[in-house]
Prior knowledge:
The protein is α/β, with parallel strands linked by helices.
Amino acid sequence: MLVHPTAALSPTHTDVPRANTWDEALLRRYDKSGPRYTSYPTALAFHEQFSPDDFTQALVRSNESHRPLSLYVHVPFCQKICFYCACNKIATKNTALAEPYLSRLDREMVLTARHLDTSRPVQQLHWGGGTPTFLTLAQMGDLIDRLDARFGLSDSADRDYAIEIDPREADVFTLRHLQSLGFNRLSLGIQDLNPQVQKAVNRVQPRVLTETLMEEAHRLGFRSLNLDLIYGLPFQTEKSFAETLSQVIELNPARLSVFNYAHMPTRFAPQRRINEADLPSADEKLAILHTTIEMLTNAGYVHIGMDHFARPDDSLAIAQRNGTLQRNFQGYSSHAQCDLVGLGVSAISRVNDVYAQNPTRLDQYEAALDKGRLATVKGLRLNKDDLIRREVIERLMCDMHIDLAAIGKRWQIDADIYFSTALERLRNAEQDGLITRHQHVVNVTPTGRLLIRHLAMAFDARLADQPTQHYSKIV
């Protein structure tokens, strides 16, 4: 049975647009392209003058903070390409090809760890991809051993060690192995349970595969399971996706991510295999979104924001209630105030006031490490204005409200004057009922949380200089 709220929650965390407040015309009017704000400034602001030396200096400076560490490891390999995919990946069935990559990862760990105080606890670990379970059990064990040797992994009960899993490439033995390696949270890709949709995106995945893994994960005591869904795929309708959601609710995951498919075939080659005529219309997508929110909230899930939902007893919902939710390159995170170190091709680090990104091409990543240096190809050191705006945007997207007086006090600025342009940009949003303002506090309404990316854009001082075609639609 689903766990329903056991504590009184703030209305900003539980209210959702119901039938009497759902305004399709309003949502369509605001459905422009914009950043997802997994960082501020966004990756489009990173520049190539930022060098590996700049990143190593940031690592050294970060030791003074004694903040815990968060490690992200990118495993780019997949056995089969899903046509909707926009991730950095390499399609192959040969697991031996991962061996040289694991060697480069270890070299990157050594080069990184020598600049870090490795007594800092690793509170968070996330393996993403690609498909991390592409690796053999032995390779996964080897990678964990290397991470532990270089950084010192944690066995603390409150650690958050997560891995993304393709149910087509994992079984109960995989889960038992992952548990023995220290993982306590799983994210399983589903996307849709409808066979016609699955065939159209080259991801045929019967429900029984997911169900078997989830049952075993619950039995083994994994703390939290996340399921990934995508709306906007070929042949999806409001009715068909509601049927998928009904089955997903029966599976009772602790978290759900329901992503909006962004069809960008000019940027992502696999998407060229999707027939655009088979995609649902804009009106149908809105109907799917509306049904999704209603069904999940009626089932007891909290709409965290954007595309994330969680049961009220899950650490994500608890962090939001406590005001400690964070947004990073993996989405919403319950562990705030960590320095994030990204390892692997395309990985991005967030260390205090610095972002650093590795090459997206495997050959460039390997060549840099073979020369005995970090693979950083671009990045950014934030100035004071960036830091202030990053805090405002992050708190807005995580808490669904901001206290400008508190921001002003913390940064010793007159926030009303400092953000006068942003507040003017929000005037229409306030008139349209997306936000309310009381003195220095801006609260996001139930309808506004669907357009939170638009609201955050008002505080983005760099947006005017960036090409919006690189961003997906907000809704």
